Amino acid sequence: MISGLFLATSLAVIATPGPDAALAAQLVFRTGSWRPAAAAAVGMIAAGACHAAAALTGVSLLLRTVPAVFTALVWAGAAFLALLGIRALCAAARRPRTPDDAGPPGPFRTDPPRSAWRCVGLGLLSTGSNPKVGLFFLAYLPQFLPTGGAPGPGIVVLAAVYLGLAALWLCLLITVAYRLHGWLAGRGPARSARRGVGRAVEALAGAVFIALAVRLVWQG
Questions:
Q1: Contact (Cβ atoms closer than 8 angstroms) between residue 192 and residue 102
Q2: Which of 104, 95, 83 lies closest to 23 in space, CA to CA?
Q3: What was the pLDDT predicted at 107?
Q4: Which residues have CB under 8 Å from 177's CB, separation 6+?
Q5: Closest among 74, 118, 112, 88 to 22, alpha carbons compared
Q6: How far apart are CA 90 and CA 143, in angstroms?
Q7: What is the percent of the chain where pLDDT is above 90?
Q8: Taking a C-beta distance cutoff of 8 angstroms, is the pair 131, 66 a contact?
């Protein structure tokens, strides 16, 4: 059941850039700490578990059979991503009023660390607001079930392994982003250049969020 093909395809799907990866990296660069991103990752994995449970119980399929509800959820998820994108673009366009407002010698003006629960909520919304995640589990996981076995326990095991791989990927992504942030803050470019890099990161994150929102609606 836990075959090499399942692990390889799962990693390929997980490593595909998406809103979760963009949010985790943005939180690291915006706050200068790995903790907010780690808290958001907890919310992402929890939302993924809820989607897996919805797929197992048939809720995801039921939502697909009610077009109005499914469309409303798709638009709500797209609106959340668009809001993240607009906020990131506004942050990229905002200039410090004085040199002292530029903050500590990091890549850019660092926000105060966000509360852990707020970041968990952001992660829950990032993953949980897309109903297509549940449909993906519904279509993907049964392909790797052994023939003749009970589907329920098998899907639970496959979902647990998939979410475990997702958690490991998020940990790796957050670690890389945090080390890159530290390099820019220490041995990286001059302070004015670091602020430019930070604004570029925010602008890129904003563009990614908005593009993902458009794709979500377009493919809905």
A1: no
A2: 83
A3: 45
A4: 24, 25, 28, 29, 34, 37
A5: 88
A6: 43
A7: 31
A8: no
Q: What pLDDT does 97 receive?
A: 47
Taking Cα atoms as reference points, which of 154, 185, 205 lies closest to residue 27?
205
pLDDT tens string 157-196: 999 999 999 999 999 999 999 998 888 776 555 555 556 6
Which three-class secondary structure state does DSSP give residue 12?
A: helix
- The residue to which tokens 């996981």 are assigned: 141
Confidence of residue 113 (pLDDT cuts 50, 70, 90): low
Q: Which residues of 53-72 are buried (b: 16+ CB within 10 A; e: fewer)?
A: bbbbeebbeebeeeeeebee
In this prediction the pTM is 0.79
What is the C-alpha to C-alpha distance for residues 46 and 132, in angstroms, rounded to an integer? 16
Cα(101)–Cα(107) distance, integer angstroms: 13
Q: Say if CB 42 and CB 95 are below 8 A apart.
A: no
